[in-house]
Amino acid sequence: MASERIENALTLLPDQPGCYIMKNANDDIIYIGKAKNLKNRVRSYFKSSHTGKTAQLVSEIHHFDYIVTQTDKESLLLEINLIQKHQPHYNIKLKHGTMYPYIKITNERDPQIIITSIVENDGGEYFGPYPNVYAATGTLDLLQKTYPLRKCGKNEKRACFYYHLGQCIGCCDHEVSLEEYEAQKTKIRSFLNGNVRSIKNVLKEKMVAASEDLQFERAAEYRDQINYIEQTVEPQNIMSKEYNDRDVFAYYFDKGWISIQVFMLRQFSIIKRDSALFPVYTEPLEELTSYIVQFYQQANHTKPKEILVPAGLDNKLLSETIEVKATTPKRGSKHKVLEMAQRNAKIAHLDKFRLLAMKQQKTTGAIEQLSEALNLPYLKIIESFDHSNIQGTNPVSAMVVYEDGRPNKSMYRKFKIKTVEGANEFATTQEVIRRRYGRLLKENGQMPDLILMDGGAIEVNAAREVLEDELGLDIPVAGMVKDDKHRTANMIFGDPLEIVPLDPRSQAFHLLQRIQDEVHRFAITFHRKTRSKQSFTSKMDAIEGVGPKTRTKVLRHFKTMKAVRDASIADIQALSIPEKVAIEIHKVAWDGQKDNPYEQAEADTAQTVLDADAMNQETE
């Protein structure tokens, strides 16, 4: 149900084209759209039922603005400009395309031919893009030798080196007429448009002649030049000549998502493909129109002489907006390539949702299986605990959280055991459960739907005793039991505890394995860090001149052993620590590590002493 503010605004909407701007409660722009009739389009958001992504968008709309335009073309251009300026969350965002190179004839009195990856509206002539930068560079080199333009700088006082090599037209030596430039540019255009047979024949003759004269390096140069032509400008046999200099747009729409495929056809073949997949909040054809206009506003997308689009689009509006002819072929080779793009769009869409279905099976699907096996409601949040110690020293515990079957690492927690000495699984479990859920009770935090203990009946019973008898909480607790090879074997649950029959091939069992492996990894990693830090602390206590204050100062500043090892003696001294003490702290940090510089220094010193003794014995 729309709010009173929105209801009042809807009554003021005009029956004219324009753009509408949806905003949330914080006045942030969340969506921008265009409409031929603002009243009908904007009202449809609030007067119709929606599902999925559109429903989510509508739920966030707090109020809206609109801008009236005179024509549909104006509203389309305004929509694109506003989207690019504000980047709303729910609008499509085009990814930056690959920086393929172009061959460019510059727009100057004395033009050059260069390679560039940036297309600008500077009056220059751009050819490409070319998928092979090395071939494009080789082709440019061939053009400069065959149809030279200016290659030197503009401030040459005399004929440049390239002019004497025949690779510069000679504006550095004499004034070149516009007619002569235009003649060269015409030959270059013809070459880059595929008319290369004559120059290829000349190169082949030169290659054969050089080979017969045993000039194999020169013959290899001609061979490479022929290859460059074939890779950049020569028509490919697999494609029709009608494919030259066109872009093809196609789409597939289902489940509220649109998949778009773009084929860029240059030099008579498909040289590049772009794709996009995003949710739709209006009509799919309108989203496709918006996508096409944005596509050609990106710097690296030159406009072809024609675009092929599916039926249903306003081709006249598109042509006027992007200033490129838009057509929808009904038959022939153009229709076939449009169909190919549509098939690719459908495949990309289906693949996306197959992947989503597979992910859902592994996450929410696995949770549903696990919930059913335990006869519990949907287990949205699962918290799992594991303990780690070595013969009772440096005991720690760790907790991981899975939400909808996925790890939520921001909710992970570590516990240093404070009240238990030695390896006492029962008492350790009780301390951790008491601390975790006693705190949640005080803070009125969200309780999990299931607690998983990495262990058997001892840990499960210890957790239940604290939850039920001390905290008065009714949270299900299950245990994850491992076999003699330390692999997940089964789960125990219930009162009395029994093995839950889970198929080892089921997604629920695989999820259980992932949770048990993750909580074990997290606990072991925390224990290793704690033990390493404790060892470092103990060794520092044995250094003369290091007391509790110095020890705390070093630990707080460097935080990790690795940071101490990576630090210089001067870095440690900077904490107001004497040099001698700083050296000893650095030595302790390196103690037991591979490539210990202090051990190497001692070994070098010992070897020097042995060498000196040997020399003395020889002298005697």
Automatic annotation (TrEMBL):
- Quick one: a GO biological-process term for this protein? nucleotide-excision repair
- Is the Protein biosynthesis keyword given for this protein? no
Q: Write the record's keywords in alphabetical order, separated by commas.
A: Cytoplasm, DNA damage, DNA excision, DNA repair, Excision nuclease, SOS response
- Where the record annotates domain GIY-YIG, the positions are 15-92
Q: Name one GO molecular function term.
A: DNA binding
| Primary location | cytoplasm
Where, subcellularly, is it found?
Cytoplasm
Pfam families per UniProt: GIY-YIG, UVR, UvrC_RNaseH, UvrC_RNaseH_dom
* InterPro entries per the UniProt record, alphabetical: GIY-YIG_endonuc, GIY-YIG_endonuc_sf, GIY-YIG_UvrC_Cho, RuvA_2-like, UVR_dom, UVR_dom_sf, UvrABC_protein_C, UvrC
Give GO cellular component annotations, separated by semicolons: cytoplasm; excinuclease repair complex
The chain positions of domain UVR read: 197-232
Every copy of the UvrC family homology region profile domain together lies at: 248-467
Q: Report the Gene3D superfamilies cross-referenced here.
A: 5' to 3' exonuclease, C-terminal subdomain, GIY-YIG endonuclease, UVR domain, UvrC, RNAse H endonuclease domain
State the similarity comment: Belongs to the UvrC family.
HAMAP family noted in UniProt:
UvrC (MF_00203)
Q: What does it do?
A: The UvrABC repair system catalyzes the recognition and processing of DNA lesions. UvrC both incises the 5' and 3' sides of the lesion. The N-terminal half is responsible for the 3' incision and the C-terminal half is responsible for the 5' incision.
Q: Which PANTHER family match?
A: UVRABC SYSTEM PROTEIN C, UVRC/OXIDOREDUCTASE
Q: How does it assemble?
A: Interacts with UvrB in an incision complex.
| Protein name as catalogued | UvrABC system protein C
